[in-house]
Write a structure and sequence with these properties.
Blueprint (H helix, E strand, L loop, with lengths): L3 H10 L14 H9 L3 H33 L4 H48 L4 H6 L2 H16 L4 H23 L1 H9 L1 H36 L2 H10 L2 H53 L5 H12 L2 H7 L2 H19 L21 E9 L3 H4 L17 E10 L4 E5 L6 H7 L8 E6 L2 E2 L5 H6 L1 E4 L10 H6 L7 H10 L3 H6 L17 H15 L3 E5 L7 H15 L3 E5 L11 E6 L2 E6 L1 H7 L2 H11 L1
Parallel strand pairs: 3-8, 3-9, 6-7, 7-8
Antiparallel strand pairs: 1-2, 1-4, 4-5, 9-10
């Protein structure tokens, strides 16, 4: 028996048995075959190699029987030589077919993985921002990795296993019955002696595998939280290294203990399979030997039966669990389709329009907004705590109406949680309005192409995100073909060029994860430089100077003035001194605009703005 056969048998026995009871959605199998259509030629050749390989399984033992009976025992040297060459040629053929089959299997498998991963990635990145606020990152990555890997096995491991094992069992049993039906029947009687305890072992390993996956996930989560800059800082400043080590060691010990149990059970499984095969072989030699002595069977036939028997138990046991193998692969496909079928909440409408290339005028007309429910934006299986939300968020924005003329700066101020960020998030359609409308140059944003709308908008948020890459690559994310001259000009305007020149590697300096190698002010100015490279018509600023010291704030304010020059802009400000010169100030409270006007007008009315201004400058 080859070492591959017991492993395939073990894999089949330890699959999750509950998958047999899963009902697939209508049309799933049809969609699966559609995915496989580009590879049908390779799959057909692959199946052909599997069939040839299965036929060769019985050819060699039968040839050995003839070599012994007609060659060795009859002292026919010519026949012995001929059959020996044929057996050697078949061995070479089997190796070649195995290599071809493996190549085709990997081509099909890796091709399907590439197609599925690419489609899932493309689809997921087009989801609305609401999707990402609810989805557990680890679960989503698992769909792109684990489930895609499981799905591709449908056309590689599972398909070849079903065909190979099924054909091998039929051919081996046929050959054995032809050679000796008595020994074949006795050999089959031993199958349940192995099958029953092996199922028990399979269930035990299955449970341990789930525990191991859970334990590894816990260790992964612990490392993910501790081995990033924020987590490491928290541990250093608040945590205890000994406590962290003790907690991690406890989790690691649990996984190690599970690994020991699994290793023992795996070996027990292999030992059981080999023991049954050895007992069956001993019975074959015992009974067959007696038949040879009584001249009822030839020596060659006895040797052939023994060789065929070694090729029977692995495939036979794997076939007993074939439904689980097939369903596991199909369910993996279905889980991938579940993500692909989740339509983005925000997407292009029918016949979307391009945004005209002219100075934009923005109009919010009686805009109301309610956050969407979980079932509208995500999948329960992708959330860490998938519970139905029985209470809706309610209207977070109510009757929001204002106009931003071309080139104007409109500022939004108000208490934390008033709805300011939500208002500016509606313009680039990170969310869609629940009622009312937002228009740019007279066109409802829902009628515009998303790419066209978002291409015209640049933003700098309170905590600007930088990728773990060089300064140059982070800046070029806004304009991939930017020249070194354009990058320098943007950085000079953003008051960051002198700092970049002072760094040993200049623009090739790595910024670190989330830009942690830079200060808050430096990140803000790089984000402004990135915005300038994009050169948008509309600018959104969300408290870009909220957490900066006075020196950095002065530099960022200087950069912001450059950004806002001749651009239509919406600015959220925590420090009211930064928006005194705004063309219009909107005071937002509890999702409504409660005051509007210029700085002097709002101060003179003595309302909420005046109160916020007095409180800030008094402190």
């Amino acid at each position: 028996m080859s070492m591959h056969a017991p492993w395939m048998t073990l894999r089949a026995m330890t699959q999750d048995q509950s998958v047999k009871n899963v009902s697939l959605k209508p049309g799933t199998i049809k969609r699966i075959f559609k995915f496989a259509k580009p590879y049908q030629k390779q799959i057909s050749i692959f199946i052909f190699t599997v069939i040839i390989d299965s036929v060769l399984v019985i050819a060699t033992p039968l040839l050995f029987a003839r070599l012994i009976d007609k060659g060795v025992l009859l002292q026919n040297g010519k026949l012995v030589t001929t059959l020996a060459f044929i057996i050697a040629a078949l061995a070479l053929l089997e190796s070649a077919i195995s290599l071809i089959g493996r190549y085709l299997s990997s081509r099909v498998g890796e091709g399907l993985i590439y197609d599925l991963r690419s489609q899932v990635f493309d689809h997921v990145q087009r989801q609305s921002i609401a999707f990402f606020t609810r989805t557990q990152t680890g679960a989503l990555i698992s769909r792109i990795n684990s489930d895609v890997m499981g799905a591709q096995q449908a056309f590689t491991t599972t398909l070849s296993g079903v065909v190979s094992n099924g054909l091998s069992v039929v051919l081996v049993l046929g050959a054995m019955f032809f050679l000796s039906w008595k020994i074949t029947v006795i050999s089959l009687v031993l199958v349940p002696l192995f099958l029953i305890p092996s199922r028990w072992i399979g269930k035990k390993i299955q449970g341990l595998a789930r525990d191991a996956m859970s334990g590894n996930a816990e260790m992964g989560a612990t490392m993910n939280e501790r081995f990033n800059v924020s987590g490491a800082l928290l541990v250093m400043l608040y945590g205890s290294y000994d406590k962290e080590s003790k907690t991690f060691r406890k989790k690691a010990r649990k996984v190690a203990d599970i690994g020991i149990q699994m290793a023992f059970l795996n070996r027990l499984f292999f030992v059981g399979l080999m023991t049954v095969a050895s007992i069956a072989t001993a019975i074959t030699y015992g009974i067959g030997g007696q038949l040879v002595i009584s001249k009822s069977m030839s020596v060659g036939t006895l040797l052939a039966l023994s060789a065929l028997l070694a090729r029977l138990y692995g495939p036979l046991t794997a076939l007993a669990n074939v439904r689980v193998d097939v369903m596991t692969a199909l369910v993996s496909f279905e889980r991938v389709f579940e993500v692909l079928d989740l339509q983005p909440m925000v997407r292009d409408g029918r016949n979307p329009k391009e945004l005209p290339n002219q100075s934009p005028k923005i109009v919010f007309d009686k805009v109301a907004f309610t956050y969407p429910r979980a079932e509208e934006i995500s999948l329960a299986s992708l959330e860490s705590a998938a519970k139905n939300e029985t209470i809706a968020s309610g209207e977070v924005l109510k009757e929001i109406s204002f106009t931003v003329e071309p080139g104007q700066m409109v500022a939004l101020v108000g208490p934390s949680g008033a709805g300011k960020t939500t208002i500016i998030s509606l313009l680039p359609r990170l969310f869609d309005v629940s009622s009312g409308s937002i228009s740019v140059n007279g066109i409802d944003v829902r009628e515009l192409k998303l790419d066209s709308l978002r291409h015209s908008i640049g933003s700098v948020m309170q905590d600007p995100h930088l990728f773990h890459d060089t300064i140059d690559e982070n800046l070029k994310y806004a304009k991939p073909d930017a020249t070194s001259g354009e990058i320098e000009a943007a950085c000079r305007s953003a008051q960051i060029w002198d700092l970049i020149l002072s760094l040993p590697n200049g623009v090739d300096t790595m910024v670190g994860e989330r830009g942690y190698r830079l200060s808050g002010g430096e990140k803000a100015r790089l984000a402004i430089a990135r915005l300038l490279l994009k050169n948008p018509q509309i600018v959104l600023l969300d408290e870009a100077t909220a957490h900066l010291d006075s020196e950095n704030e002065a530099l960022v304010q200087s950069a912001i003035r450059e950004v806002l020059k001749d651009r239509t802009s919406l600015v959220i400000a925590h420090r009211l001194s930064t928006i005194i010169s705004a063309d219009q100030i909107l005071v937002v409270e509890e999702g409504k605009i409660v005051e509007r006007g210029k700085h002097e007008e709002l101060i003179s009315t003595g309302g909420l703005y005046s109160e916020l201004y007095a409180r800030q400058f008094t402190s």
